[in-house]
UniProtKB/TrEMBL annotation, chain A:
<comment type="similarity">
    <text>Belongs to the adaptor complexes large subunit family.</text>
</comment>
<feature type="compositionally biased region" description="Low complexity">
    <location>
        <begin position="662"/>
        <end position="671"/>
    </location>
</feature>
<comment type="function">
    <text>Subunit of non-clathrin- and clathrin-associated adaptor protein complex 3 (AP-3) that plays a role in protein sorting in the late-Golgi/trans-Golgi network (TGN) and/or endosomes. The AP complexes mediate both the recruitment of clathrin to membranes and the recognition of sorting signals within the cytosolic tails of transmembrane cargo molecules. AP-3 appears to be involved in the sorting of a subset of transmembrane proteins targeted to lysosomes and lysosome-related organelles.</text>
</comment>
<dbReference type="GO" id="GO:0030665">
    <property type="term" value="C:clathrin-coated vesicle membrane"/>
</dbReference>
<dbReference type="InterPro" id="IPR056314">
    <property type="entry name" value="AP3B1/2_C"/>
</dbReference>
<feature type="compositionally biased region" description="Basic residues">
    <location>
        <begin position="712"/>
        <end position="725"/>
    </location>
</feature>
<dbReference type="GO" id="GO:0030131">
    <property type="term" value="C:clathrin adaptor complex"/>
</dbReference>
<keyword id="KW-0653">Protein transport</keyword>
<dbReference type="InterPro" id="IPR016024">
    <property type="entry name" value="ARM-type_fold"/>
</dbReference>
UniProtKB/TrEMBL annotation, chain B:
<dbReference type="InterPro" id="IPR001392">
    <property type="entry name" value="Clathrin_mu"/>
</dbReference>
<dbReference type="Pfam" id="PF00928">
    <property type="entry name" value="Adap_comp_sub"/>
</dbReference>
<dbReference type="GO" id="GO:0030659">
    <property type="term" value="C:cytoplasmic vesicle membrane"/>
</dbReference>
<keyword id="KW-0968">Cytoplasmic vesicle</keyword>
<keyword id="KW-0653">Protein transport</keyword>
<dbReference type="GO" id="GO:0016192">
    <property type="term" value="P:vesicle-mediated transport"/>
</dbReference>
<dbReference type="GO" id="GO:0030131">
    <property type="term" value="C:clathrin adaptor complex"/>
</dbReference>
<dbReference type="InterPro" id="IPR011012">
    <property type="entry name" value="Longin-like_dom_sf"/>
</dbReference>
<keyword id="KW-0333">Golgi apparatus</keyword>
Amino acid sequence: MSTVALYNDQGGAEAAVEGLETSSSTSGAAFGLFSADFKKNEDLKEMLESNKDSLKLEAMKRVVGLIAKGKNASELFPAVVKNVASKNIELKKLVYVYLVRYAEEQQDLALLSISTFQRALKEPNQFIRASALRVLSSIRVSIIVPIMMLAIKEAAADLSPYVRKTSAHAIQKLYSLDPNQKEQLIEVIEKLLKDKSTLVAGSVVVAFEEVCPDRIDLIHKNYRKLCNLLVDVEEWGQVVIISMLTRYARTQFTSPWTEGAMFDENSEKAFYENTKSLLQSRNTAVVMSVAQLYWHLAPQHEVNIVTKSLVRLLRSHREVQYIVLQNIATMSIQRKGMFEPHMKSFYVRSTDATHIKTLKLEILTNLANEANISTILREFQTYVKSQDKAFAAATIQAIGRCATNISEVTDTCLNGLVLLLSNRDETVVAESVVVIKKLLQTQPTQHSEIIKHMAKLFDNITVSMARASILWLMGEYCDRVPKIAPDVLRKMAKTFTAEEDIVKLQTVNLAAKLYLTNSKQTKLLTQYILNLGKYDQSYDIRDRTRFIRQLIVPNEKNGALNKYARRILLAPKPAPVLESAFKDRDRFQLGTLSHSINSKAAGYQELSDWPAVAPDQSVRNVEVIEPVQEWAPLVGKTKKPKSTEKFYSDNEEEKEEEGSESSEGSSSSSSEESDSESEEQSSEESDKTSSDSGKSSSGSEKSSSESESEQKKKKKTKKAPKKNGKTAAAFSDSDENGNGPAARDGSTSADSSSGSETDSEDEDSDSDAPPTQQQKKSDVKSKPKVKGKSEKEVSLLDLDDFSPAPTNAPKSSVVSSSLLSDLEGLSLSNTSSTMQVTTPSFGPVKTYELLHHMTGKGLSAKYHFPRQPCLYQPSMVAVQVTLTNSSDHSLEEIHIGDRSPASLNIHCFNTIERLEPEASVTVSMGIDFSDSTQAANFQLCTKEDQFSVSIQPAVGELLMPSTLTEQDFSTEQGKLLGMNETSATVTMATASASSQAVTTQVLSVANVGVVSSGQSSLHRFAGRTVSSGALVLVSLEPKESSAALLTINTDKSVMASMLLRDLKQALALA
Amino acid sequence: MIHSLFLINHSGDIFLEKHWKSVISRSVCDYFFEAKEKAVDPEDVAPVLQTPHHYLITIYRGKLFFLSVVQTEVPPLFVIEFLHRVADTFQDYFGECSESVIKDNVVTVYELLEEMLDNGVPLATESNVLKEMIRPPTILRSVVNTLTGGSNVGNTLPTGQLSNVPWRRAGVKYANNEAYFDVIEEIDAIVDKSGTTVFAEIQGVIEACVWLTGMPDLTLSFMNPRLLDDVSFHPCVRFQRWESERALSFIPPDGNFTLMNYHVSSQNLVAIPVYVKQSISFFESGPCGRLDITIGPKQTMGKMVEALMVKIHMPKAVLSVNLTATQGSHTYDLPTKVLVWDIGRLNPQKLPNLKGSLSLQAGAPKPEDSPSLNIDLKMQQVAISGLKVNRLDMFGEKYKMFKGVKYVTKAGKFQVRT
């Protein structure tokens, strides 16, 4: 080994590797040349081989010192590697440092240490395992790739999240060592992506980005989990995850920027909410990554929230400023409004670095508009006087840009620039000339004065670019300064030989142009100049001269071209466009290295354009963790008016919201309606969650598991009302069963079979069928399935849901999510035939006042009936209450107090801890009106006050739409005759009211379903009372002129008369 | 991500290198040296440089360049932020971040760098976590270590990395439990020639020094949180509590840390503590000029203005100054052309004045530009925005703690144009 010593410090890597071959064979006595370095290292070697730890440590410290200085210490490898198993932790760590640094050069010797690490990988202490893996994977020796692979796989399944994190890091190392392992590594990444520890999330996404950034499909199932974990991930991981998710979102969602765009509330809203708080991070990289996320993904009106945070970053270090300013420069081109209020933050200080100054100038120029231009120009005046001449020149260009962009100030700018022509500083003058030239080109008509002025200054200007610009101006507008131009040419003829190339070229140009316009005066001068040019040293000038001569001086050979000389030389030229250097920077994702250097960096992943049609959203559905509600309870969330197309997603969103709102509460509400099955499940779930995550605090864990179980229950109960419709639909599909609908109703309202049906649906969704298919499927087979599955053990079915999941990840959430999606499928399939007509009932939502803000001391409340099956109990009517705080202080503990009549069954919303001023929150509650229009009275309480309020339902709101075929409708109607029939003649506003208008009016009054009818004139509607499920049938038969016969068949005669009255009023408007 | 790190001193010597992946030759730094050559000031070197095979991302801190080499796309701020965190850590460990101190502690530095990055990905950057693994050197410990051969590497394992509060080490014990908070506000302002304020804003920071036993859960509330317009927090602060109650609720790291940074809403008028009457002029005839500066108190909220200092970057043509100050001392540094007038405490009865002549390089044209004045000052016991801490409560621990809040106002980037 000591042969290595032959090579001294400067030897470098190759020498060391060469040395290695001999070193492994020869060991023992040293020989060779004794250089000073060699002696020193010899001394180190002795120390390393001594028995004392302190000596070894001292030696290692010196060795590390050598490494740090970049000196070669590779010949000590054998001596060092012996200490790899040392008991002294610091010594061991230093040996690791050495090993990682030189292993690549000393591969054979490095192998000696491997067994130590392999042993350490089995240690009970997680930190020892992790550090062993860290070092092992850092040893860049390709022979141990299989060992590494094995170690990584094992570590990825380790119980300790810290070790799993280390394995994620090791993946990248192995990949860079041997890219052939990609496939196997992707498998490990896939596994680690499922990990729920916040420790792992960041690291595995880094590995994902490095190894397989194009495998977007791996993210689907983890998307929501990553969104939810994001806040708790360490800051460096946050940056990587956000950046990856931005890319992901651009491939998976449709653009929120187009008119009437649909917002996938589930996926995106929560994501934005989660990321918003990260704008307050102390880590500038995190703030920037959130900013770029909003820039690239958020709807236009939301982007502005990042402004303040970005401006805040300008207080940070110079380098941070540089990057942030670059990004702001790009943003401010497209959206001035974002940064205009903060314009003054971009004012330049004389102490700023030049590149910071230039960027600020760029931004100020971008922000300039008619309103602020005078302020900006005043500011620019200060900058022009700056000591930093490069900056002063940049300011002049900026003034030029302002002048072209804002026509109001063009003249002012031009005059200002002309004044600068008499500045003492050459660069300032030169820059002014160049900018004036560009400006004059845009509107040359009125400015012969300026051209004359410049001609006067010409003698004093020495900067060649400026001289050339003036000459060009003279030539271009020689007709406007007919007397001066030839004179300038005369002067140039005198100094021609002493000028710079660029000036000479322009002189030739000027001569040519003058020759064409004013050949009388300038013919001789031109010839003189062309002769000078002919013998110039520069071939460019000789070339140009020859060309010009041929062009303008007629002779027999070039007659054809000569005719066009005037047109060629004096063609009107388009004005140059003065635009920002950041104009097209936004082709790069903001915040990236590529954006910063304005060219594609290695490994840059393009942001794709938004897809025209959103890819299947259900791919993300599998794993939903109910977001741990860490932020304020849904402040300011208001419902958007629903449009018909949005039926599906909005519906889903609403339920999700309701679910999450109520899940914030205690478990008490759930216990009252809990059945044994769900209890069993919830305990199972919470067990799993708590055993798994060592990270999330126990409090939040509990609440999340509670919410999961609770939500689940809600789904179960929600099933029931849905089932009403469902069975009806099933019945109509398969008529041969012949069962009376009444009997069916009885069986569905009992809860017994509903659970099993839900479960059967679960399985459906687990198979990856897209929702549309699924709907059809369930439509077709729902009936037999109910029967078949109902015999099965319910809990067993639930376990089926757990089984495909890996054991280390609790899958509790899976059930709830798939349940959810199932319910969607279900509800859609019921209504699919009538969907077209029933949907308008979701359109006009009447809002009623519950509490005026005057009486409520600032608290105002409004309510409306969302006309959806109530989540809490099937017999309840869902009511959504929007609470708004219009006082100037925040209100606390908003909840429902005493109610009357006392028997009134209300499902209250959970106490709202705090409502900020101007904020509003929408909560849902359920009220069992027992099919009467008696008002529900209760008290709305805040911490200090109590307000008595009442909700009086319109009779139409006590119904649920029911789907019947025309035939069934007639059958049912036949059973409800006599006492059960109420009818009246109504007069409609217009004789020929369209059926659409009639439908709309009826649906606005009553929550009933349209029965498709063969006769276009006859309108039929069917519904059931919410509480008792009694059928309510409405039919409208037009009579002569504008009259029509309105008939209501139901056994609830009181309701019938009230409904009749309401409908009569409404139809009078149709 | 981060491939290698080179530390380069002011004169361009690489005195430390560390590689997290395969070794990159230090010749890569030549591109940087080229750019540094071109720049007038070291601050003018662009933080991001592109070379044929690598990208160089550099920060300049304490006269040192931290040059990192990256090979693939990575957010530049990610690297910049990390490098600053490295510099902060050095500062935290060794009291300063300078070449000599890094050279003296090269082993600790190397150990730190090893823990902070794994394969170029940040691993442990929390000061509390690092200190558990690598103890900061103290004089006593280094003496003991040399005698006994002990080490700086902690024997405990970095359990902090696993806890839900990774920023706090476990098992902290103090005989005296103390928590101090410094509310430091800086006024950034640009005042124009005529004395009108072109731009002014207040940036604040709350620096904390907490020595408390166990796992205290602190809540700090303000009298007037509405003043705060934009904030950023140490990760320990519970954002949701801030959103709902405008109070800072947190389990503090042990020792010194920055609790929050804030920006005072621009609606509030910023009190400018001093006014400056100045005239700097250069004569058309003859190579000389005149300077006359007087500073007086403006809106000082009844507090004393201390540590008053004026810095002027003179035009290049100014060769020497001949000035007399009624208070304090002044120096003119010829190579950098910076005139510094250190006034000290501002006496409202007798306003400090600096007056005299400037001599210019013979033959040089009269400078076009007039230099701007950078003002530095300090006011104790007042936060200029009026922000006040209301109370500090502790939960989770039983003992009594000693608490203190201190307010300081300083001039940030306070510039008077002439």
